[in-house]
Amino acid sequence: MSEAATLYPLAGKRVWVAGHGGMVGSALVRRLQSEGCELQIANRRQQLVEAWLARKRPHAIFLAAAKVGGINANNTRPAEFLYDNLMIAANIINAAPTFGVEKLLFLGSSCVYPKFAPQPITEDALLTGPLEPTNQWYAIAKIAGAQLCQAYRAQYGCDFITAMPTNLYGPGDNFDLRSSHAMPALIAKAHRAKFEGARELVVWGTGRPMREFLHVADVADALVFLMKHYSDAGLVNVGVGQDIAIADLARLVAEVVGFRGALRFDPSMPDGTPRKLLDVSKLTGLGWRPRMALRAGIEQTYAWYRAHLDVAPRAAHADAGRGRAVEPRREAEIGSPR
Ligand code: GFB
Question: Of the residues 8, 83, 113, 138, which is catalytic?
């Protein structure tokens, strides 16, 4: 398979990873170590962005900063998910051309596509139907960000591109059960259920929705690839091209963690969109492929979770259902795995 030509070499460039403290941003920082670029990382308040850009003058920006969360956080905090993400996108995208930024990559999400889009979802499905209600607020902000990139390209000739990643997971994820995505939630629940000797693990919804999972090291690699090899107005889906039912994911996670009890489904919690498998032929056609198999990725993420139980500030446990979150505890306090 031939790889698309390098249009934008990163060596020698000043590169700002906006959102370097998050799961994707920190994976990008790790991935960019081998690119020979000068990394710029800082937490920027909105009013300080322009002053910071004027001083640091990045050549390229990975716009990975976002307010993110799972189905429950999206569903219960609509104002934050819409406003914060609109402002992050508008503020940085608008400031970038003023300070000579040569290239910007905006990170969207697979939830931008219509709830009932034909599967697998191609990039041209955008704005062809109604959104999934649980994450419409986040989706609208991400659609606006993608459209801003296209508008600035059309009106000002800016080399701004947009990637639409599928559901992500990996080291650095948020394991707080009230706000996390399904993967970290299931890992944390299975771990706790195992060490408490619980008989069952509660899985939200019916377990029937299908989701596609991409490891964060793979998404970081794909984003660096697109920054270097892609320059066009069109969106690019980033995924693995395969999905799994939530019930099967819960079984796989339980197996990896070593929890041998039963699964109990809680239909009072939302299922969300039934399926959102991305068509990744555009990205694979450019010459990029993911490397991490799902089981290996879950094993690696579970190892990270166990190693960080006592230090990750967001890695709080909650009870096996959807109740009260409690402070993270050392593994030794809830039983030794061996
Ligand atoms: O990952 P998730 O929270 O978000 O949920 P979405 C995926 C599926 O897993 C849903 C089920 O069907 C949930 O009902 N699920 C089962 C659980 N058990 C759990 C659990 O303990 N916690 C969670 N969180 N889910 C997100 C959007 O949608 O996708 C974001 O809300 C973003 O905006 C992201 O776009 C990629 O996949 O439904």
Answer: 138
